[in-house]
Design goal:
The chain has 254 residues and is an alpha+beta fold. It is built from six helices and 17 strands. 22% of the residues lie in helices and 42% in strands.
Length: 254
């Protein structure tokens, strides 16, 4: 299978300005991203290198309700406004057709590979290809797959030059792991590991981790079957020990 990297995460919110303000108050850069005009959604973003946070809201409910083949939008319609939850992680590849072939062979139900686009907050068109995975494993929804134009190095250079990726005033912070609370951490980690070609380690009692580059997906005991936390390392005294809560999700700095 093609090498997969952790591209970003999706967190459903009702008010995009709330996470922008909450992160800004802690010296972290977050900003309005733009609109997905075909899907009726819009977003706010916060970058930590090429791995970023996407806060996703519904801009046009009628359009979002009519969206086909995009489980991310479909789920937003289902859970909002009651639950502002961390939705799912997103995996980046440079061979989305290869990933599609592998996941189909594993028996998963996939959307077609679809073209995504949105206008950023300066009116520039951003495009990508993506594929979502229907269903869940023991209640935990699957990641979706994305492919951007260009190499990681080219994107990092371009996003930095345009000011999308910039230093956080509070200091350096890096995303190290996503935490999923599930009924059976061993089974969930094993299943995702086999699907996405990620090695599994048992990190503690009822804690199983998948290594994805120098980051990890951590599966811990809980009955929510839900993505719950994002863990960061930081050299900032102002950030160390802080937890930023957005809806039902937590961003924890250590």
């Amino acid at each position: 299978m093609a090498v997969l990297k952790w591209d970003h995460l999706v967190h459903y919110v009702n008010d995009l300005d709330q996470p922008v303000q909450s992160f800004g108050e802690q010296g972290l850069v977050a900003f309005r991203g733009g609109s997905h005009k075909d899907w009726g959604t819009y977003n706010a973003l916060s970058y930590f290198g090429l791995t970023y946070l996407e806060f996703l809201g519904i801009e046009n409910l009628e359009l979002a309700q009519a969206t086909e083949h995009n489980v991310v939008v479909r789920d937003a319609v289902t859970v909002l406004p009651e639950h502002e939850v961390l939705s799912r992680v997103v995996l980046r590849t440079d061979d989305i057709e290869g990933v599609e072939t592998s996941l189909k062979a594993a028996g998963l139900s996939l959307s077609p590979i679809i073209d995504g686009r949105r206008l950023d907050n300066k009116g520039r068109l951003i495009e990508w290809r993506m594929m979502t995975i229907d269903g869940d494993f023991q209640g935990l929804v699957y990641p979706f797959i994305i492919q951007w134009n260009g190499t990681d190095e080219e994107r990092l250079e371009r996003l930095t030059a345009s000011g999308i990726i910039q230093a956080h005033p509070a200091g350096n912070a890096e995303i190290v792991s996503a935490v999923f609370r599930v009924l059976d951490p061993a089974a969930a980690a094993k299943h995702w590991g086999e699907l996405f070609g990620l090695p599994v380690t048992e990190s503690g009692v009822n804690l199983f981790s998948l290594a994805i580059g120098d980051q990890s997906f951590d599966f811990v005991q809980g009955d929510e079957n839900q993505f719950k936390q994002v863990l960061f390392t930081t050299d900032s005294p102002a950030l160390k020990g802080k937890t930023i809560r957005v809806g039902e999700g937590e961003y924890v700095f250590a």
